[in-house]
Amino acid sequence: MNRLISQQHRIRSLGEEMSSLLLAYQLRGKKVVVIGAGEVAAGRVKACYDADASIIEVYGKDVHPDILALEEDGDRTIEIFEGAVRPENVDLEGVSLAFTAIDDRKLSAEFVQLFRNKNIMCNAADIPELCDFYFGSTINRGPLQVLVSTNGNAPRLARRVRQELEHTVDQLGMEGAFAKVGKLREELRKMTVTGEEGYDPQTVKKRMKWMSHICDKFTFSQMAALTDKDIGKLLALYPQKVSYSDIRPS
Amino acid sequence: MNRLISQQHRIRSLGEEMSSLLLAYQLRGKKVVVIGAGEVAAGRVKACYDADASIIEVYGKDVHPDILALEEDGDRTIEIFEGAVRPENVDLEGVSLAFTAIDDRKLSAEFVQLFRNKNIMCNAADIPELCDFYFGSTINRGPLQVLVSTNGNAPRLARRVRQELEHTVDQLGMEGAFAKVGKLREELRKMTVTGEEGYDPQTVKKRMKWMSHICDKFTFSQMAALTDKDIGKLLALYPQKVSYSDIRPS
């Protein structure tokens, strides 16, 4: 393993092209540990909180106000262990994901070793060669999430890529489209419910086929512009094929 | 843990809004296990191979030709264990990431339990409630990678989101821009090399500042259109502030 890690480091130093496996990691039901309680740590806590982590344990002193605010307002558990950070005081039992966000690089590396011993995936702030993963720039619009990674190349450009993609997402009204399609699917489900909880496979299949048809047929802007009345008109036509002119005659 | 997992399942069933932590996972120096050797498994192997996994172990029978082709051509190690898949035959020592891609759901769940016992992050094809992560739709353009996740909402729309973002990426010439900026940075590094390997902090800082300036000042299309001659002109102006008209007078 040591050989492989040093190889990785060598390759990074030479600036060769890197590639990542982009993942949508699920934090529900999982426990996260954050070593450090400053501004960077607060960003990690917020990201994990927004991704529905069940338990977030924070170890550090001078706890950032954003962390305290989440601890108070939150409907999920943030546990703060205030004080100087010592490896022997950190409980890694049942932990799925870990972060270090402290200035002491040696201590940070020590924690990473502890995480690795337990096969806990981790990110060490400012020490890329010790990271199992990076964050990149993200766009969040309702259920739609977009990650932009440039694998360490031109971080300044990465931000601009994100801005351009954000512009496309917003200009086309994608968030609204997802909301309306979600609503349409929900109403359709209520209307066609059969058997216990409506999970009759034939009905589900028929519903999915029709929803796919709508998703293919309407532009994002058309979907985003659907009113409750439009949704009613569409449902009245189920399971026929429809087009935008059926609900908005030109 | 069981309580948490069943809670997760309940929330999914109700179709409430989900959120993921989007990550750029690093596979260099890591070992991956893929249970199954069919078409879906081949997709997993390819994704991990492209993301520079060091060792990929594949367990299954009737191995898909794409896996065999990668095994032969590859400069990295793909090990195929051909035959009926049995948990007792799979070695999970040192494994960072695991996949199941088999039709037998019961066997798949059995493997997931083994992975969890060793804290190995996993994805079970077609069994979302057993997945630690999902893939989503991705765009790969040189060092630029984009992940689109809709957290299970309207998968048909997810594909269209990806297509629209792909259009933006390609229309603005982002891949070319990254290539040219990479080239400029490389030439600049050669030109300004100082000390051992050119890592004098002052020089590095000055270079980075100038590169950021260029990245902010030029559009993607302007960057993508830079010729070797243009790059020479830019370098001759270092470390002055420059604008596009300095190299392409209108």
From TrEMBL, chains A, B:
Pathway: Porphyrin-containing compound metabolism; siroheme biosynthesis; sirohydrochlorin from precorrin-2: step 1/1. Residues 174-241 form the Siroheme biosynthesis protein Met8 C-terminal domain. The keyword Mitochondrion does not apply. InterPro entries: Met8-like, Met8_C, NAD(P)-bd_dom_sf, Sirohaem_synthase_central, Sirohaem_synthase_N. Residues 141-167 form the Siroheme synthase central domain. It catalyses: precorrin-2 + NAD(+) = sirohydrochlorin + NADH + 2 H(+). Its EC number is 1.3.1.76. The keyword Oxidoreductase applies. It is an enzyme of class 1 (oxidoreductase). One of its GO terms (molecular function) is precorrin-2 dehydrogenase activity. One of its GO terms (biological process) is siroheme biosynthetic process. Keywords: NAD, Oxidoreductase, Porphyrin biosynthesis. This is precorrin-2 dehydrogenase. It comes from Trichomonascus ciferrii.
